Task: structure prediction
Amino acid sequence: MNNGLDLSYLEEVTGGSSEMIVEMLQLFVNDTPDQLSNIERGVKNGDWDEVRAEAHKMKPTFQYVGMDETHLLVAELETKARNREQLERIPELVDLIKRNFSSKLDSFESKIKELSS
Result:
């Protein structure tokens, strides 16, 4: 797919409906920064239940938009927070997830514009 995006899963589950793909991408683009902020707050406060819960909520969205590597990072984050293990690695995971999201943000926004026109 163009822009280095793999939206094949979204295309499959929406039957190729541009309107539905745009809606789902818009939710992803709008909600992910808030979810990442919630995770960062949870890390700062040592609230591993919040970190786990937010990671659990956002985990499938990365898979839906074809960001499988980031999906695995979020799954690892969720597991470490749930099990209270390797907590020192969590800030690094959060940083990687944020960078991966940021690196694709322009591509997602371009795709939304493309499909909306």
